[in-house]
């Protein structure tokens, strides 16, 4: 089972992904917890370029190819091998981030992005995408207060983040069986409880 977390910055994805991984491990599953950009040594080097606040001159096409290069390495070296071993893979962001941020956020052509993404991933799609939804201003505020890493993309205008959110909503509507929206403006434990129930339901269904 390949589970991805999506949502705006500061939606708490990282915490929720970690808590879910710990829970599933306690239940006896082997879980690979990973993230994008990154997830592999080469991916982490690409991540550093993408996040460096000095790189304001980055062209939008260069940006998408860097995210995609990180993703190609991630799928080939980490995700596919783990799935082949029958493990559960949980990724904090995946290809939908590209469609939401570079497509809806930056306005790059969605069909091109889908082609680049299909090339990078060999067509690997998550079985379940948990979408942690929160208003962009609340997410960014949480991020700043929480002392989390402040990246080049966090510094984008609020309108950019509004477009990203609308993008996620559009993507979720296109594939309602894969996407589950979770209200992220609630206490951590409450959100985690809902996520566990969703994932356990899917695991039961998968076992038949
Ligand atoms: P990260 O530090 O992982 O932030 P978060 O905790 O919010 O996930 O930074 C990832 C940033 O990169 C985030 O602003 C979203 C952006 N991003 C894209 O624009 N496109 C992509 O394909 C991916 C994977 C991330």
Structural descriptors:
alpha/beta, 208 residues, Rossmann fold, five-stranded parallel sheet, binds thymidine-5'-diphosphate
Q: What can you tell me about this protein's structure?
A:
With 208 residues, the protein is α/β, with parallel strands linked by helices. The chain has one domain (2-207): Rossmann fold, CATH 3.40.50. It has helices spanning 13-26, 41-51, 60-84, 95-105, 110-121, 136-145, 158-174, 188-207; strands at 2-6, 31-35, 88-92, 128-133, 179-183. It has a five-stranded parallel β-sheet with strand order 2-3-1-4-5, sandwiched between helices. The protein binds thymidine-5'-diphosphate. Thymidine-5'-diphosphate binds at residues 9, 13-14, 35-37, 67, 92-93, 97-98, 101-102, 149, 151, 153.
Helix- and strand-based class? alpha/beta
Following the backbone from N to C, one meets helices and strands in this order, namely EHEHHEHHEHHEH
- Share of helical residues: 55-70%
Strand content: 5-15%
Count of discrete alpha- or pi-helical segments spanning 4 or more residues: 8
Mean pLDDT: 94
Assigned CATH class: Alpha Beta
SSE diagram, text form:
Layout: E1 2-6, H1 13-26, E2 31-35, H2 41-51, H3 60-84, E3 88-92, H4 95-105, H5 110-121, E4 128-133, H6 136-145, H7 158-174, E5 179-183, H8 188-207
Helix pairs in contact: 1-8, 2-3, 3-5, 4-5, 4-7
Residues 9, 13-14, 35-37, 67, 92-93, 97-98, 101-102, 149, 151, 153 line the site of thymidine-5'-diphosphate (TYD).
Quick take:
This protein has 8 helices and 5 strands.
């Amino acid at each position: 089972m390949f589970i991805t977390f999506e949502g705006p910055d500061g939606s708490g994805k990282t915490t929720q992904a970690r808590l879910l991984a710990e829970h599933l491990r306690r239940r006896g599953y082997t879980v690979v917890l990973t993230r994008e950009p990154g997830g592999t040594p080469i991916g982490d080097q690409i991540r550093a370029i993408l996040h460096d606040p000095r790189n304001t001159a980055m062209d939008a096409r260069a940006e998408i190819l860097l995210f995609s290069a990180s993703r190609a390495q991630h799928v080939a070296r980490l995700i596919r091998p783990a799935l082949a071993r029958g493990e559960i893979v949980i990724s904090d962001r995946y290809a939908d981030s590209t469609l939401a941020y570079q497509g809806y956020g930056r306005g790059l052509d969605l069909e091109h992005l889908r082609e680049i993404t299909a090339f990078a991933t060999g067509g690997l799609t998550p079985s379940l995408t948990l979408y942690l939804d929160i208003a962009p201003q609340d997410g960014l505020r949480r991020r700043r207060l929480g002392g989390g890493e402040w990246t080049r993309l966090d510094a984008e205008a609020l309108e950019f983040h509004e477009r990203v959110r609308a993008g996620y909503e559009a993507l979720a509507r296109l594939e309602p069986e894969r996407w589950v929206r979770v209200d992220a403006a609630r206490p951590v434990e409450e959100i985690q409880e809902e996520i566990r129930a969703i994932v356990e339901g899917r695991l039961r269904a998968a076992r038949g």
